[in-house]
Amino acid sequence: MDMDKKFIKVNEHYQTSQKHIYAIGDLVSRYQLAHAASAHGIHVVETLAKRNPSLVRQEDITRCIYTRLESASVGLSESQAKEAGYDVKVTQSAFQGNAKALIKGENEGFIKLVIDKKYGEILGAFIVGPHATDLIGELLGVKASEGTINEISNIIQLHPALLETIGESSDAYFGTAIHM
């Protein structure tokens, strides 16, 4: 089997140089996360069943850090987006202006969005703060459905909720944020 340093080399369908062997998860040089390994495994099963699955794109895998102050991200960073040729605008809001974060005493952190100026596409989302690994789901859903910053800005977020900080970040893009 061909190796890439300490990892097994695979093609886009996780097939190794031994055509009858597939490798996923921690064996391959991709994100070392359980949900990434599950996506790889599902892709392999669908490939073997000849269902022509969509490729698992690294930038679509949510990255998470489960510490006291959680961190979660998906998509491209500002520099990666620029390198890919996008004209980007970055918007950000802090949890310190969020009512629920203040009530819970967990108001450290921020939400940052990397947006393509041309279409309003969400290229990347970064959350550092309370329940970041849960909050990233809303942005992932909008991004996966090819929603734009407009759709996020138009969501009426419940109050009080940490999700309001996502709304604030999107409103900040348009200069209409009210809790900053």
TrEMBL record:
GO MF: dihydrolipoyl dehydrogenase (NADH) activity; flavin adenine dinucleotide binding
Ranges of residues in domain FAD/NAD(P)-binding: 5-41
SUPFAM superfamilies hit by this protein: FAD/NAD(P)-binding domain, FAD/NAD-linked reductases, dimerisation (C-terminal) domain
Ranges where the Pyridine nucleotide-disulphide oxidoreductase dimerisation domain occurs: 62-168
Keyword presence, Transmembrane helix: no
Matches recorded under Pfam families: Pyr_redox_2 (PF07992), Pyr_redox_dim (PF02852)
Key words of the record: FAD, Flavoprotein, NAD, Oxidoreductase
InterPro entries: Class-I_Pyr_Nuc-Dis_Oxidored (IPR050151), FAD/NAD-bd_sf (IPR036188), FAD/NAD-binding_dom (IPR023753), FAD/NAD-linked_Rdtase_dimer_sf (IPR016156), Pyr_nucl-diS_OxRdtase_dimer (IPR004099)
GO terms classed as biological process: 2-oxoglutarate metabolic process
Class of enzymatic activity (EC top level): oxidoreductase
Cofactor(s) for this UniProt protein: FAD
Domain of life according to the entry: Bacteria
EC number per UniProt: 1.8.1.4
UniProt similarity note: Belongs to the class-I pyridine nucleotide-disulfide oxidoreductase family.
Name recorded for this polypeptide: Dihydrolipoamide dehydrogenase
Gene source species: Staphylococcus saccharolyticus
